Structures are given as C-alpha cells and as structure tokens.
# Entry
Amino acid sequence: MSGSRNALAEKLAARIEREGPILFSEFMEAALYDPAHGYYSAARRAQAEPTGIAGDYFTATQLQPVFGRLMRAAAEEMRARLGLPETCTLADWGAGRALMAEAFSGFRYIAVEAHTPLPKPFEGIVFANELFDALPVDVVCGGRKGMRLQRVAWSEGRFVRVDGEPPEGEWKEYAERLARAFGELDDWEIELPVRMRAVLGAIHASLRRGALLVIDYGYTEREIVRFPRGTLMSYRRHQASEDVLRDPGGRDITAHVPFTHLMECAAAQGWKAAPLESLAALLLRAGERDSFASALAAEREEEAQRLRLQLKTLLFGMGETFRCLRLEKEG
Ligand SMILES: C[S@@+](CC[C@H](N)C(=O)[O-])C[C@H]1O[C@@H](n2cnc3c(N)ncnc32)[C@H](O)[C@@H]1O
# Structure
C-alpha cells in the first residue's frame, strides 16, 4: 500500500477510476514500461541511470571488464561447439545500457530492448542477463478460503491490493501445483509468469540457429517452499522494499524467475536445454582454461587488485544466487 503522486500514478488512478481495479501485471507493465513514465521507458532512460552506483541496483554487467571477459569466453565456446560462423550475431536481449557491447565486440553485437522492434532472424547467440526477472507477473494469493488473483485499486490517495477473481485454466493449475509446497499454510502468495512464454517465443522466432544464455536469480519448483510470501521486490537507490505499489515508474520492480516453468516453456517451443547451473559454475568453466589469466589481465597492480575483487564478487557474491540456463535451437 502506498501514497503516490506522480504523472504515472495520476494516469493509473484515472484508469482504475474508469475501469475498476486492474490486474497486478497491468500495474507492473505500466510501472516499468509505460512509454512516457515507465521505469524502463526510453524517455526515462535518457535522464536516469537505473543501474550502477548512482542508480537503483547492481547487475553483473557492471562488473567490467571481468564479467565481460568471462562471458565473451563462454559465448566463444558456444559459438565453436555449435559450429556458428565467426561473425555470427550476439543479441543482448534486454540490454539496458548495453554495458556488454565492448565485451562482445568480436561478434555482430545488437542490443534488443522492450521498445525496439524484433531483430530479423539471425544465427548466433542470445544473451539475456536479468531479462526474465523484469517481466510483468500476475499475483495469486491463497489459503483455506481458496485462491484469488490480486488486483490494484486506488483508495484514499493510495494504490492498494484487493482480491480479484480466482485464476482460471492454465494459471489455476500452475498455482495449485506450486502451492502444494505450502501444505496447510493459510496465507501464501505466488507470482504467475504471464509474459514469459511470449518473450521466450519472440527470441525463438528471431534466432534461426544458435543458443540462448539466460542468467537470472530464481527458483525451481522444489525450491518455492522458501518463498511463501512470493518474491516481488522493489528497488530504489539500492534499498529493497516489499512495497511494490509505491511510486510507480520511480522504482524498479522484480520477481524471481520460476526456472521450472521457463524450462517447460522452452521444451514446448522445441529448445534443447542443458542442465540448470549456478553462475559460479559457468564462470569457473569460462575461466579455468587459462586459470583466469586473461580475465584478470591488468597492466598495473592497482588495476589487478580491482579485477581480483570483481572476480571474487562474481564467484562468491553473485555466483550461487544467480543461475544460468543454456538453451539451444537447431536450424
Ligand atoms: C533488469 S534490466 C537488465 C539490463 C541488463 N541486461 C543488465 O544486466 O544490466 C532488464 C531489461 O530488460 C528489458 N526488457 C524487458 N522486457 C523486454 C522485452 N520483452 N524484450 C527486450 N527487452 C526487455 C528492460 O527494458 C530492461 O532494460
């Protein structure tokens, strides 16, 4: 629940007054991607820096050059294994500020964003770092009284959550399946990844032949038991908050990625999946060929120290939290 007065809040409040309470996914879509005021809109991006020290949160892509060098090694290994041409495309899907552009300069690098048209079909590699955690989700709450989708209402100058209709069809089954982990618990919450299949399908349609590397934080179906209150979080100036309805457009909103569902969507679309692994495992494989010598190459000791710290943050700070899913598409 939250007091909110900004241009997007006014627009959403007016919409809710006209149409009634909106689905959480509609609220999240507007908060992140409203063309004029959304957190990730092109207009806002021009003035603000969502990531980095001055921004709201960190991603691995800011740990340059070490993350870039190791991901380049991983991408080169995939290119060789799949027999892709040297000059194949590397599409950074959900590229944000395109901080990987230099690392992938040996490829034909393209940045794909929420507001850009889909690229023409290409052969190569798609890199998706923290793309899927930024997709709008619906929310279902449940317990002894049954399940209800969550809607967002506007009441006394604030956005508030209200119970909506019960979920139906595929999403009813999905919620029932995952909620089994919560047993008799009377007040659980699960996010429904309602946009995931379409985004994966868009990548599938653009990639004629090659691989998709997904890096994100999330859980498998067996691990959902750790999140009985769901995983939605909001970030502003490095402060995490569970109040995702506050200040729409001014804060990031994320949900952990349900990897089991992502793998099921991938299988249905014909992707071939490698086993899910930790980011640490991928980084270790990418660096072990020369014992991290090229990843840590530096001209001065000061720089060498900085790079060693980056590697430590990647391996021990993010390495076990983040997961990697490698999907391949045969031509
Ligand atoms: C959390 S940011 C990650 C940015 C960057 N990859 C990084 O690691 O710093 C998520 C990005 O995905 C983009 N995005 C969201 N939906 C998308 C879509 N359907 N297609 C392409 N990009 C999308 C957002 O605009 C945002 O820039």
Summary: Residues 40, 51, 59, 61, 93-96, 99, 112-114, 129-131, 134-135, 199 surround S-adenosylmethionine (CB under 6 Å). The first helix runs from residue 7 to 19.
